[in-house]
Each structure stands twice: as structure tokens, then as C-alpha cells.
Amino acid sequence: MQRKSLVAAGAAAGVATLTAGLLIRRSFNHRGSRDDAPGRTARNGDFGEYSVVGKTVTITKPSRGELFAFWRDFTNLPAFMENLERVERLSGDRWRWTIKAPGGGSVDVETEIAQERADELIAWRSVEGSDIDTEGRVRFRDAPGGRGTEVELIVAYMPPLGTAGRIVAKLFQREPRIQARRDLRRFRMLMETGEIATSDNRLQREETA
Amino acid sequence: MRALCYHGKQDVRVDSVPDPEIVNPRDAIIEITSTAICGSDLHLYDGAIPMVKAGDILGHEFMGRVVETGAHSTLRKGQRVVVPFVIACGSCYFCQQQQYSACDNSNPVDKQEMSEGLYGTPMSGLFGYSHLTGGYPGGQAEYARVPFSDVGPIVIEDDALDDEQVLFLSDILPTGWMAAENAEISEGDTVAVWGAGPVGLFAAQSALLMGAARVIVIDHYPHRLELARGLGAEIINFRETDVREALMEMSGGTGPDAVIDAVGMEAHGFAIDNMIDIAKQKIGFGADRASALKQAILAVRKAGRVSIPGVYGGMTDKFPLGALMEKGITVRTGQTHVQKYSAKLLEMIAEGKIDTTFLISHRLPLERAADGYANFKNQQDDYTKVVLKPGMEA
Q1: Which structural domain range is residue B321 located in?
Q2: Predicted complex ipTM
Q3: Is B20 within 8 Å of A201 when comparing Cβ atoms?
Q4: Cross-chain CB nearest to A60 (options B18, B96, B136)
């Protein structure tokens, strides 16, 4: 349950600092003279106090433009991000993300769009005053040989002190990389098949809440 | 509904459980008319495969009638269908390549990680075969929920075809066929098949249909070997005969052009250290089974083909890697891409080119499924295949 919140919380969090921006860039970029792998796969990655996770999936359909458009409407994200309760548009490109917290509560975080290139890239960051300092970026690019679209999700965050910080830290203890991977795989399922696979033989009913 | 549930090692029972319902738009609900016990079910029964939980409904070879459809299912109520044991979405990269058992999207996300840890990439979803492959409730039941019902189920339009003629389209017939296809058989080939169980027998039948000049089946159960002979194969009883020497002589001193391992070593268990330990501890049965593939690799001719439909879950030691390389052997294997073969095999059944009914030794009501398991396990020579009928009088 909490696993997907990584992305949500990443998207959700507080002061967008220059530092976090650099971190994300470093996680994307190749490491200079070393090899061609993304920086986040380095054996000795150094992102200071930030945690950076990143995952990639390839999605066969629909088109890159349609994948981009689905993601760009953040209100769609709870459909595949398990720990995201809802996302509301506040004004312009400000959004409020409501993240399920362990123990039944929730955490709200406001974000703004930091960067956007049509059909290619969306970056968001938490606005000033948030308890959580985070940003996220999703990139869409054509896979080689017409094999669909590579979707790469990167989230950087620094859980601060305080109650919200503790909640987020608790969320993030659950293998952030696995959380990002699970969210991306659910995204692929939803896009390619129109549904998210489950082996439950019966509908989950709300009374369990 | 009533369903055969796992309770523990060699403890399965028919219980009353909630009926399935439509959960996702592409689902259909099938009322099951016939469902078989697979040899691989015995490994679940023996507790050899992890991630099987008490209460899990077993069974992955089933057929029946459509009783309910989701908004995006293409099936209609009342249609008669055989359900492939592999659950496949039909739209991911692998399904587009007709590699259905590599489907990206059928194993629920949170269940993918265990097989990913073992194998580097996750497996697809399968019915009734542990939580490694999704934890999907199986088909030894009165009803089953079938995901992606617009892709998998094979509609049987011709009511003149009995359940027993088409039921094995769900698994063992396409598995035997793909095993022969993986052996890349051409006219005049000599093909050796280890294991005269259902998959080995169907592989032998398929190899002959593909033009093999000779098919030689190796086992030790006399009745099963007779079934192989009935298909037109020659037989070797490994208790009485030196298998490698016999194969070399029977193939003119060359060795078989292709070999098929329809034995597998699933019974050793899925966990890696467990596999190695059991193989080391049990020199008898366990080592025999582990040795089928190794024997096949040594028996095949130079530049020959090795096809492995037998199921393996972990690792093995003392593997003849040198023989593989120095002889220039091609190896092909994998869980069956059932959906790829459904239409062609159904047509061959309808035309009378393939008969699968010879295999069935016992028919039981679902209520007696536990007896079916025990007898299938303990009397392998007599119990070649058990079909359970939910509608049959107990």
C-alpha cells in the first residue's frame, strides 16, 4: 500500500530547492568520463541528504503523446499510484496531492510544474512552505525500433523533521525503488490493457476502511 | 461454490468458498464443466513449490460455459470455452510477439517481485499455480474468474466436440506441441523424448505429425510406455536398457537429431538452496529426475537441438556445459505460449488429426478431487490423467 507513495510524496513535497534540481539532473545524466549508465545506478551515488530513486519501463501503447497527456493531468495519477488518495487542481498549475499515510491519516502537499516539454517531459516540485522538500520528473522518449515509449520516472526528496516528515520517512522505508517500479508497472498495465491486473476473485469493498 | 483448496502438504479438500465475480472490465466468469489434474499439480500437492497458501484454489486445465462477462469481454453468455493456463493481456510487447507466457501485465504488480528476485525478470500470471505466478484462483472449482477473457479463452463452436476432445488445449496439448516445435524437427529426423507423461506423449505425437521419421520415448512405467507405442513411437525402458547406448545404436551411430526433456525437476522445489540440497540428499528419485536433461544433452547428436518443456525452478550443479558448447547444441525452452497454438490445434482436433482422449484414465466428480490427487500421485502407471467433472453425481 505505502509503496507507491514515494512518487506521490515526491511529487507532493515542500521547498523546491536548487539542490534537488541538481540532484535530479545528476540522476538522469551520465557520469562524465566513467560509463554510460544513469547516475542513480552508481555503486557510490552521493546525493547528500536527499534520496533519489528512478525507474524506467517501456510501454507499447498508446502513443507517446497520449501517455504524456494522461500523466500531465495529475488527477489521473491516483488510478495507478496506489498510495495517492487524490490530486486536485488548485489554480493554474498548482496541485494538491493527498497521500495516504500509515495508520489511516493523510498528508497534503502542494506542487507546481517546474518544467514541461510537450510529449517529452514533465517536472514538478513542492512549493515553498511545505514540510517536505521534493521534486519529480517523468520523461517520455521513443524506444528503439518502434517498440513504444520509454517512460522514466525520477523522484528526489529530503524528509525533514516534524510530524509530516516522520510520516513520509515511514513511507519511504519501504524500498523506494520497488515503490517506483510498482507504480510504473501499474501505469503500463493501465495504458496497455485498460485495467490493472489483480488475482482477487471478488471486488474489494469499501467497508474494510 | 465448491472448489478444491490447498490446506497443506498432501492435504487438499473440496470446500465451500465465495463465488467469483467480475472484477476488471475484461473479465468473464466461466461455469466449469471439465477440469483436469496436471502432473505439475502434484508438485503443489507435495508442498514442493513455495508461495502456495492454505485456501488457494488449485487447477489450471479447465473449460466450461460463459455465465457472466465484463464490459470489455468479447465473450457471450452461453459460449463454450477452453481456458489457457497462461494468463496474457494480448497487448504488451511479448504478447505482440506471441510470447504469451512472457506477458508483462498479467501477474499482479506486488506478486512479480518474487520471481523477479529468482530469475531477474518477473513471470506472467498463471491460474492456480502459487503466488509466484499471481496467486490466481484455479479451475478445479465450479466457477472461475478469467481475466483478459477477450484474449485467452478458445471458443468451441462445434458442440459435436466433447469436452474430453478439447480440454487439453488448456495446457498439455500445446505444451507437447511447442516442445516438438522447439526441437525444430524436419523430415527424417530421429527424436528422443524423456518422460511418457501427458506432455511427453503429446510431444511424441506432435513430433510424428511434424515429420519425424522415428520418435523414441524413454520412461519406466510399462503402461505409459504402451501408450507411447500406441502413438507410433518406439520405447526404451530405462530400468532395463542403457539409454545412451541404445539411442546411439537406434540412430545409426549418430545420436538423435533432437531431444525433448518432458521430465523436469520441479519436484525438487523452487527455492534455490532447497533445490541443491534436495538433489544432494535424495540420490534416488530426485537424482534420476535431475539427470534426464543431462542425459539428453549427452545423447543428442553434434549440432543437435534440446527442447525442454519439463519445468525447472531453481539451479542445478554438475551441468554438462562443456558438452553444450563443444557439440554446438541449441537449447529452447519456456512456459507454453498457449494462445499462439489454440486455433491451429483445435482445427487439427476437429479434423481428426490429433486425438487426446486416449490419455484419460479416470473421470471423477469434483467432490472426489482429493482421491484423484492421492491416486494420481501414488499409482502413476494406472492414473495417466484424471478429469474432474463438477456436474457429475458424486
Answers
A1: 173-333
A2: 0.90
A3: yes
A4: B96
